[in-house]
Every structure is written in structure tokens, then in C-alpha cells.
Amino acid sequence: MPLKKLILKSGVNRENTRYTSEGGWYECDKIRFRQGSPEKIGGWVRTSNATYLGVCRSLWSWVTLNSQSLIGVGTNLKFYIENGTAYNDITPLRDTVVLTDPFATVSGSPIVTVTDANGGYVNNDYVTFSNATAVGGVTVNGEYQLTTTTTANQYTIDVGTAATSAATGGGTVTAVYQINTDVPFSVPITGWGASGWGDGPWGEGTPSAARIRLWSQSNFGEDLIFGPRGGRIYYWDAGSGLTSRGVELSTLFGASDVPISQRVIEVSDINRFVFALGANDFGTAVVNPMLVRWSDQGSAIDWTPSVTSQA
Length: 311
Known about the structure:
By secondary structure, the chain is an all-beta fold. The protein has three domains: 56-88, no CATH class; 93-178, Elongation Factor Tu (Ef-tu), domain 3, CATH 2.40.30.20; 183-311, no CATH class. The protein is 0% helix and 35% strand. The protein is built from no helices and 23 strands. β21 and β22 (273-277) form a beta hairpin.
């Protein structure tokens, strides 16, 4: 049988089926074409030694009016703005409280118990203390991650330095809490109460799963609108600088009837509407997973339906 030279067309054509792409390439991975022939990519180069905390589940890239290339990075622990290979922590804040002598140390241990009756925190949350005085030979100032939530009023942190004595104190301390963290991976849940009431046969538990944190994010002009699935909507002002934190959209001046919960956030970049999919209905706190709400055109903060707006 005579041999016939087979010449394949360069490039990858995914617009047609495998059969209509005969004589060309339909599916490839990590290759490039050079002089009509495929060539493997030599590998990946790390762009920066900087790292972020948590497992990343969302990336969004855009360019500001002064030509800054930014990337929003949402993880299960924090939210960052990447610029110039550096990760800037803009995680929104949940609460700021003033505590009196909240710290308790154990001699020889770096674990400090913190008493805060305000609650609202969960394991792995982040808190920043300031204005604290020394207690047990250590000064608890700076950002720390909660290691264990012991009770509704107490949790522990690792300060990295062993206390020299058992003591209670710290003086008048300001505690700033970031929004609650979430699990890095979907965790199966089984047993009584794992699923909704009435799910499955009587007397038999139905397995469920703790959902991972999924962020939605999209730029509104040069600014960023973002939020975790099932959480509130946040706003980051690029003009305030890379070190400024995101704030709850409803706290901005002039904000009205901003949804308190959403499953997905989208921005119409041409018409400048902000969409909240799976939001609470107007005037109620009841979340409807099938409901879509949107802001007035050109405004990210006006969500009040009226004859003078398109919300």
C-alpha cells in the first residue's frame, strides 16, 4: 500500500465536531503552534513569591482608569486585590467592639483565651486587636486567627510567644472582626439534623454537605462589587487605594434597599445595572432563590423600585 503524506492544519478548531475538523486539530493541551506544527509549552513560571491565605475559588481581572491591572482574589478565608504580584487584603469587616481585660494566659503556652460576649465569630475567623497592654508577659496586638471557639463568649488564639505567667488582663482593647470565614472544601455531613426537616424516610438521616464559599465579583467602572454566595454585597473603591477594605454596599451614602443576601452578582458593563440573583424580595428579609433584583441604571446603591428609577 503506498504511503501518503498527511499534512494537518495548524491551530485548534473547537467550533465544529471532531469529524468536521478532519485534517486539523480538535483538542490539545499546553501546546502552541510554531511554523504550522504543534510544540509543547516548556512549563510554568511562578510570577511572585507572595502568597494568600485559604483556597481560591474566584478570580476577576480588570483595569482601572489610571491603567492599573487588578485581579480580585476570593478565598474561603479572605478577599484580596492583586496588583504587581502583591496581594492586598481588603476583606470586609463584620464588627468592631471595645473589650475590657479580655485576655487570659497560661504560663508556658502561646495560647490565649479571649472573652467577648458579643459573639458572632466562628472557628478560623480573623480578628485584629489594638491598644492592648501586656498580660502574662505577652502583648496581644495585631491580627490573629481564631483557633478554637470554646463557648459562645470565648475563643482562643495563638500569639506565637509563650506567656511567662498565668494572668488575666489587657486593659481596654479594640477588637475588629472580619466577616466570617468558611470551609475550604465541601465536607459531607451525616446523621441527625444533617439535612432539612422531612427529607428522607422517617427515622433515617439524609446525608448533606457543608458548601464551600463561592464568591461573585464584577467591576462597576473601575471599582469592584463582590460578595460570597448567600451573603451580603460589598463594594471596593479603587480610588481609595489598594490598602482600603471593601465595605458593605448598603453602608454607602445614599444606598437604599440593597439586598441583604444573594447567590450570584452580575454587572451589566454596558448598561451599568447591578444584578442580584437569588436575593431577598423588596421590603422583606425572606430569600427567594428564584428572584432576580437589580439596581437603578448607573447606580450601584439605588435598589428602590419607583417611577423615577429602573430598579
